[in-house]
Amino acid sequence: MSKVKSSETVKVVVRCRPLNRKEAAGVTGTPGGRGGIVEMDVHRGQVVLRNPRALPGEPQKTFTFDSVYDASSRQRDLYDETVRPLIHSVLDGFNGTIFAYGQTGTGKTYTMQGAWLEPERRGVIPNAFEHVFTQISRSPADRQYLVRASYLEIYREEIRDLLDPNVHTPHVPNVHTQSPHTLELRESPESGVYVRDLTSCVCKSVKEIEELMNLGNQVRSVGATDMNEHSSRSHTLFLITVECSQTGPDGRQHIRVGRLNLVDLAGSERQAKTGVRGERLKEAAKINLSLSALGNVISALADGRSGHVPYRDSKLTRLLQDSLGGNAKTVMVATLGPAPQHYEETLTTLRYANRAKNIKNQPRVNEDPKDALLREFQKEIARLRAQLSHREGRGKHRKEEGEEGWDREGDEEGEEEVEKERKLQKERLEEENKAIREDGSLLAVEKQRLLGEKEIMMGDLRKERDTTEQLTAKYKAMESKLLVGGRNIMDHTSEQQKTLETRRQEIAEQSRREREILQQVMVQDEETLELRETFSSLQQEVEAKTKKLKKLYAKLQCVKAEIQDVNDEHVRSRQELEQTQNQLTRELKFKYLIIENFIPPEEKNKILNRLTLDPEEDQWKFQLLTPSESQMKKRLASAVGYKRPISQYARVALAMGAHSRYRAENILFLELDMSPPTTVSLDHWPSEVRPNCSPSPTDNAPYRERATRVRKSRSWCQAPRAITSSSSTVSLATHSTATPSTAQ
Ligand code: ADP
Ligand code: MG
């Protein structure tokens, strides 16, 4: 069941980082001035972009967003204003997504992660961790929470599990045995698009979740480009699932599940700019492909008219399907660099962000989903508790029945009492053992029997204790994973700090509202401009209308420039796509060449017949080799008494009764006969081939043929044959007659 909330647009904010040292050295004195080419009006949420190569009179480009953060903005400002409300929604059971988009080196990772060790520079992710656990600790005590985390990256269109336990060698930090597993995307009507077999870890505290993040970051794919030394070469997604159970007005427990996706995208730069080649270029091609797929999805959604949204074009867009046009609340942080040399990229990012503003989502609370882990935990905890109390009850029952050795007093309850009881039983049994041993009146056999009985009882007692201990440990471990509102996590913040936090929140909310009102006023101003004007004289009317005409003309110029820009952009991206296509075609030709020339056609056909396309994964896959019944060659039934079928030849040989050295293997003797030398005494040459008339090679052929070494095979069943040593002269004659009889 889910409550539908009215639709809301994707929240888009823009952040510009300060000029770095390299850029600052180049920028001074350029048209961009000291601050570069980006100017921001924080109160109105406007960004003005200056073209460093602008022609005189060319208008500047202005964009309006939900919020803008200039170079002097702090991490906290962005968090309080933009992210905090989203985290609250997630705790209330909504799905939420924050993704950072922008050119490499503009501060996506800085915004999402920041500097973990410096409180002032901590990014969205560490602040969100703290926020989630603090909120849980401050929530009412009747709520139970279960927090889970997963971490994955999309590298070259493959999904990798960054928390895969096989990747992280236990107890040896920073040592990774293998690269992360590649996972598949699946879709179900209940939970939408999800990653199959993705590792998900239950976290009880900020420390635990931070450790997970660190672990994942160690295996994340990063590489240096000309624009950023530690450029992220993959898209990463950190997923936090918060399940909350609470007693509803109907007196029953209800579970709400909120999922928070924290996405740090790889850079959207042009390939030429990053100076990448080889493997990095291939990465860039994949990054650009998935980002252009993201762009297409955003365009299709923003347009609102096109029925088809190409989510399936890339893994990234499929994973973000819920976040873009789905049931999530989404925040996009577009990051900019102020350097004039990146004007085109900055403009592209702004356009991208501008389009994303129009995407409408339908966020709704996920209530009582079937796959809630919290419910399973609660069931398991209840089962363990029942088992434990049953054991306690059994102990008491035994005592009441007055079994031998169980006569104890008291009516205690609880774990400690049970433990005490067990201890007493043990002591009693030991005492009785001792008494039996010391009792001289008992026969030795009788003594042995009684001691044996007591030993069995001691064993039972031990077994019972071990099982109860195991159950208790399991019960405690499971219960500790559930966070109870206001109890499990100690909130060390003082009242003063809490008030400060609330105050900051209020200020953020107020400035957001002010900005919204300002933006509305701006829009209304434009619309009502014409309505307000009344003129007292013709001259005044001419002036006013000239002014308006100028304004409209400027607007027209802006739109024209915009169209030109969009065209240029289109041409550029087409060229880039063509370039990528050419490269791929070249690679394809190379592979074709190898296949056509070095793989036999029948093998190629066999392989082709086995390949099938998996539309879900968009991958070619090999069919499993399971031959049909008719194709399966039946193994010949073995001849009775033999290990395996035996050939006719071997059968005959066997009948002849030769030695059986190689009988089992059916091996043939291959023996090189000592053949006679090919030299011939001249005396025996026929007169017509005497040396004075040198013989032609063909004339000599019969002799040579006869003299050719003969390689004879002999089966294991043949009797060893004495090798005749032959002299050069007789060999020709004798050999010619001997050969037919010996050769097989
Ligand atoms: P991206 O992830 O977009 O490729 P990074 O986040 O790695 O870029 O940022 C590149 C560099 O710029 C880093 O050294 C980072 O510290 C710095 N940086 C980015 N944004 C800011 C900012 N708002 N304030 C200060 N430094 C920043
Ligand atoms: Mg990065």
Give your account of this protein's structure.
- With 744 residues, this protein is an alpha+beta fold.
- The chain is built from 18 helices and 26 strands.
- The strands form eight sheets. Strands 3, 7, 8, 9, 10, 11, 14, 17, 18, 19 and 22 form an eleven-stranded mixed beta sheet that branches. The chain has a three-stranded antiparallel beta sheet with strand order 4-5-6, with helices on one face. Strands 1-21 form a two-stranded antiparallel ribbon.
- Strand 15 and strand 16 (231-232) form a beta hairpin.
- Helix 2 crosses helix 4 (124-138) and helix 10 (373-401) runs antiparallel to helix 12.
- The radius of gyration is 42 Å and the shape is flat.
- The N and C termini lie far apart (86 Å).
- Mean pLDDT is 76; it is low at 1-5, 29-33, 171-177, 224-230, 272-276, 400-412 and 689-744.
- The structure holds adenosine-5'-diphosphate and magnesium ion.
- The site of magnesium ion (MG) has 4 residues, from helix 3.
Q: What is shown here, in short?
A:
The chain has 744 residues and is of the alpha+beta class. It is built from 18 helices and 26 strands.
Beta-strand content: 15-25%
Helix tally equals: 18
Uncertain regions: pLDDT < 50 for 5+ in a row?
1-5, 29-33, 171-177, 224-230, 272-276, 400-412, 689-744
Small molecules (ligands, ions, cofactors) in the structure: adenosine-5'-diphosphate, magnesium ion
Cα separation of the termini: 86 Å
Q: What structural category characterises the helix and strand content? A: alpha+beta
| Rg measurement, Å | 42 Å
